[in-house]
Write a structure and sequence with these properties.
The chain is an alpha/beta fold. The chain contains 17 helices and 18 strands. The protein has two domains: 2-222, YjeF N-terminal domain (Rossmann fold, 3-Layer(aba) Sandwich), CATH 3.40.50.10260; 232-499, UDP-N-acetylmuramoyl-L-alanine:D-glutamate ligase (3-Layer(aba) Sandwich). The longest helix has 27 residues, at 457-483. Bound molecules: ligand NPW, adenosine-5'-diphosphate and potassium ion. Homotetramer.
Length: 517
């Protein structure tokens, strides 16, 4: 799913009114009617008090349309105008008049937090104060109002975006933002729903289709894309009947040191489980017995070093190499890594200590093959590109880094983001059970395994991250957050593949069932 920028959304609105020959007021009516339908379907006429807080722009206009429709359908509605500015939008004003014609219970105009009504935990708040038009910090009294929303503990539904969040700038004041239980966003989710510093402002979100011009939606390129099953399915490479293991590449996983051989084993097993034809683990001598006895499918090549790698040499031709897991940063290992890069021409996935060594010796970056994949967690990323002040600056720095070195950078986290030059692909699978030792090693193996099977490095990263998270989501059903460990993610990888082709369950049609004999 495309994630449109604020500018693109405004342009989509404009083009839609032009091409569909409707007014912006009609588009607002259509958009807010979707919100009404959403609520009506769930509430079924329930008389829960609904408090709708409207700003004076188009987000407020949406709130007024919603309020009018709820009133017409007999809901228990109270409407407030958060009067934060003298400049009202045209469609706000039109809908302000319309609601006055609909009910005698006119909106209450709030000019300070003084007039804040009593709201009980079982009530519902609709937040239509600011939308994507926020361009400066809200006034203190408006921030106070948002704090009162939170203190009321009422279910809070935000329209389009939690008020107080910018679409393209970091948070300035944590207290000047609405904490939404749910956000109904028009046409496109907003990037801020997925970034670590701002995701917390809405627990859940959903996109409502408001009929923006189809051509505009399909033809407009976005910098950001959300990756779910729909996006990865076209990447999948089916297998031919007469395929043999030579068709699926030979993965080499290089890493490990005394006490950290397991990392190589996890990455090697996941490379094989992701579909690679052959896997060789390259490790220091101390790991030979453990890998050979517990993982019979792997071939093993030992370094001359006993406890750490000191001279990388092998006589195979790997299709893809994953390097760095559990490798350590002993002086000999750093020298071996440096020498390896000089001679290497295979596609690379670099993780863990390979990234830490690159961070220490940035001149080595120019030795990486084009479109190598690096998979840092936040600490490793910071060592590599330096500190950032907020999520937006982090993305800018990573984009610049990717461009400068022609690298695919995976920013790992709750929503891992694959960055290649200007483009960002946000993953939607995965869960907090993955915050466990070795889950990153498994990912390294999967991505390397996919490259070995002929996936382009960018596709392998996007698809690999998706499969890794999906596999953990499936494993979660058996193990729960606490007991999920990295090995489980490998065991359910097959289910993650099969899930790609699962059809949604058909809905049961009660009336068509045969009566029992
Ligand atoms: N396709 C779609 O997505 C559709 C979207 N629609 C809806 O439109 C919403 C965007 O509406 P919007 O442009 O009128 O902006 P909104 O957020 O209501 O702000 C209002 C104005 O407030 C001002 N202002 C800004 N910051 C301020 C501050 N701190 N303190 C005081 N004032 C401040 C600023 O004006 P300024 O004062 O800068 O001139 C701003 O313009 C969008 O989120 C969605 O809900 C649908 O209706 C139709 C289809
Ligand atoms: N809360 C979370 N939600 C989703 N995925 C997560 C979460 N926490 C961690 N992960 C994923 O788990 C993996 C952890 O990788 P990493 O930190 O390198 O672990 P390790 O070094 O132990 O192998 C990453 O792919 C990350 O995206
Ligand atoms: K809002």
């Amino acid at each position: 799913m495309k994630v449109f920028s604020k500018e693109q959304i405004y342009e989509g609105d404009r083009l839609t009114t032009e091409r569909q020959e409707i007014s912006s007021t009609e588009l607002m009516e259509r958009a807010a009617t979707q919100i009404f339908n959403w609520m009506h379907l769930r509430m079924q006429g329930a008389q829960v008090p609904v408090h709708i807080f409207c700003g004076i722009g188009n987000n407020g206009g949406d709130g007024l349309v919603l309020a009018r429709q709820l009133v017409i359908h007999g809901y228990n509605v109270k409407t407030y105008i958060v009067n934060y500015s003298e400049t009202r939008s045209k469609d706000f004003l039109i809908n302000y008049e319309r609601i006055k014609d609909t009910t005698k219970d006119w909106p209450v105009v709030l000019n300070s937090a003084e007039g804040f009504p009593e709201i009980y935990p079982d009530d519902i708040i609709v937040d239509a104060v600011f939308g994507i038009g926020l361009n400066r910090p809200p006034a203190d009294w408006v921030a106070d109002l948002f704090q009162k929303f939170k203190a009321s503990e009422a279910f809070t539904l935000s329209i389009d975006i939690p008020s107080g969040l910018y679409t393209d700038k970091p948070v300035e004041d944590e207290n000047a933002i609405v904490y939404a239980n749910y956000t109904l966003s028009f046409q496109s989710p907003k990037l801020v729903f997925f970034l670590p510093e701002t995701a917390k402002y809405t627990i859940q979100w959903e996109v409502l289709d408001i009929g923006i011009d189809r051509d505009y939606l399909t033809q407009t390129e976005t910098e950001v894309e959300l990756i779910s099953k729909f996006e990865v399915l076209p990447l999948y490479k089916p297998r031919q009947k007469f395929a043999h293991k030579g068709d699926f590449g030979h993965v080499l996983i290089i890493g490990g040191s005394f006490g950290k051989i397991g990392a190589v084993q996890l990455a090697s097993r996941s490379a094989l489980s992701s579909g690679a034809g052959l896997v060789t683990s390259y490790i220091p001598q101390c790991g030979y017995n453990s890998i050979q006895s517990s993982f019979p499918e792997a071939m093993v090549i030992c370094d001359d070093g006993d406890k750490a790698i000191k001279d990388i040499h092998f006589n195979i031709e790997p299709t893809a190499i994953g390097i760095g897991v559990g490798m350590g940063q002993a002086a000999d290992t750093i020298a071996a890594f440096e020498a390896f890069l000089k001679g290497n021409e295979s596609p690379l996935v670099l993780d863990a200590d390979a990234i830490n060594i690159l961070a220490k010796k940035k001149t080595l970056l120019k030795r990486l093959p084009q479109q190598s994949v690096i998979t840092p967690h936040p600490k490793e990323l910071e060592r590599l590109i330096g500190k950032w002040s907020d999520d937006f600056e982090k993305l800018e720095k990573v984009k610049a880094f990717s461009k400068a070195h022609d690298l695919i950078v995976l920013i790992k986290g709750a929503h891992s983001i694959t960055v290649y030059k200007e483009k960002q692909y946000i993953n939607t699978t995965g869960n907090p059970g993955m915050a466990t030792a070795g889950s990153g090693d498994v990912l390294t193996g999967i991505i390397t395994g996919l490259i070995a099977q002929g996936y382009e490095p960018l596709a392998a990263t996007i698809f690999g991250v998706y499969l890794h998270g999906k596999s953990a989501d499936i494993a979660l059903e058996d193990y729960g957050y606490q007991s999920l460990i990295a090995s489980h993610i490998i065991e359910t990888l097959g289910d993650a593949y099969m899930d790609l082709f699962k059809q949604p369950e058909p809905e049961e049609k009660q009336e068509e069932q045969e009566p029992e004999q």
